[in-house]
## 1
Amino acid sequence: MPLLRRMINLEELHLNIIVKCNDKCFDGDILKENIIIYMPRLHKFTFSICSIINHNDETNLPLKEYIQETFKDFFNNQIISCIDHFQEGFSQCHIYTYPYKSYFYSNITNDFQGGLFLSVTKVSLFDERPFEYEFFLQIQKSFPFMKKLKINNRKPQEVISNNDNHILSIIEYSNLTQLDLFKTHDDYLELFLFDTKISLPNDLHLYVDYQSLKRVTYYFTRCITRYNYPKIAFLYIHSLDSIDEHIKNYFARTFICPISFASSE
């Protein structure tokens, strides 16, 4: 902020930041009092601000209505606010101007409000509630040019009966080049590898955990036809010391790379 305050002649600004807070999110009042008031010539202001709020007392959590009220006399932009509270002891407040200008959108939850994000190529998903079919369909519609997708969700999906599968259209992630499923429940790895409800493009880079991959492939013996597995060009496996013959034979057309930590950025 001290740097921004010195830019008194600035006329246009796009602010893209992630802030760690103790008790309050980065809202409209903070923007006006600490930045905008020092820029008298500013006439175009767009932003994407994500506040990570650590807390122990849930009674003091910020309310979405309050946050939205702090932007009532802002520039002529549509301003969206999303706030999520997690049992792990933190909240996330994301405020941004729409249309969205950034190339990435991080930590999308089930409360995602939708919209069209043409500039976004990198997306990450996080929640303590499971992601279901409708959520992944919404992600496809909202981010048509998404190239990188990272999923962090340890909750299993709800079971969908086989009788329902025929009414679900196929979700096409046609521009995806990189998929990180390292920190997910087995259900999501199975969904993207074996399920017929999601279609992936060729030459995909996939990041997975070895134990999870071993479980969903039945220790690399699961019969596979017409699924997404043949489209994987590069497979990065976490916690794998060496590549044995079972993995080589199962992913015969894939370059396999063992890695010891999550490095899909």
## 2
Amino acid sequence: MSRLSQAISEGDGISVIASVADVESARAAEDQGAEAIAITARVPGLREATSLPILWVGPAAPEDADACLLRVEDADEELEARHAALAAGGLECVVDVHDDEELELALERIDPEIFLISPRGAEDDELPLDRVLELLPDVPAGKLAIADVPSADREVISALERGGFDAVLVGSADVGELVGSEPPPV
């Protein structure tokens, strides 16, 4: 297992992956109990500032990333080639899906180990939490599932954990409030 999958599959409860923009935010997220960090732009000095796995969610992953996001909707015809290139570069691939068709396509064509379940494309009256929970049962046993919910509170984190998610990707909110001193009740 690579660093990201190991970080989110070990231990009790759901892991928090904090989206950060700078070294200070990364340090704070680690101090508050995040299991990994996500970045959308290069952050000089990040690898030295944190021991957490780094998930790159922007284009062209930096050399110090451990994992990279691959959106099925963006890759389409190049899905296998892009997945292979990430693996050849030593990166763990996190496959972003937002509906049943993308999930099925990813499983058929590349069979990834980690999925990011996104609420993109939700109906106007559908809550992001409901959208990601609706897709989770289609992720096969043995695969890791990360929920993409940019604004979350302890209640949402608890619902995701009860639903079976391994991790949650959150905005740069106060990770400490989401993690708490004990895992959320299940």
## 3
Amino acid sequence: MKYIVFSDFDGTITEQDVIMSIMSIFATSEWKEIRDKIFSKEITISEGVSQLFSLIPSSKKDEIVKWCLENIKIRDGFKDFLYFLKERHIPFIVLSGGLDFYIYPILKPYLDLITKVYSNQADFSGKFIKVKFFYWCDSFCNDDCGMCKSSVIRKYREFYDKVIYIGDSITDIVPSKISDIIFARDYLARELSKEGIAYFEYETFYDIKERLKSIL
């Protein structure tokens, strides 16, 4: 069996939702209304992410990165889990609807163990942060994701027998549904339960590792 692991970043690899944490510190109060519209699906993910970051001046870039490095915590067991996969020659791919300018600094200690990171890109050329999208939805998705996780997964599916997905939030619902083994928590777990879709719960990457020991 050839396995591949895809993982969300915000609230999955990290303990906090990094985007929402950044907004709570650096954005104006409108961010909460935009967040609520994303979760109620009044606006698309790409619209929401763009609107959120447009609330923050580009001049805050270095301050945001510094704050993230000092305050964002990686979920327990992450490095151990990456070594576990490396020993079994299983690729680990990060799929994030967040922005590169803080994701890469946070993941820097682990990048040699990560196969690839897919994310949106930040543009600081204007007064406020602009989001650039490169991984749009394919013909099988019309959710206007901006960073379409399911589209990326489909590009890999023909090369692997089983897709393992790890997530926690609204952007992880669709990619979970096209995966073979799902690890879910928080919002994602609640939504999958409503739809009767099987998943394994986790709190740390040690939990995921122990479960996969009996599968791989």
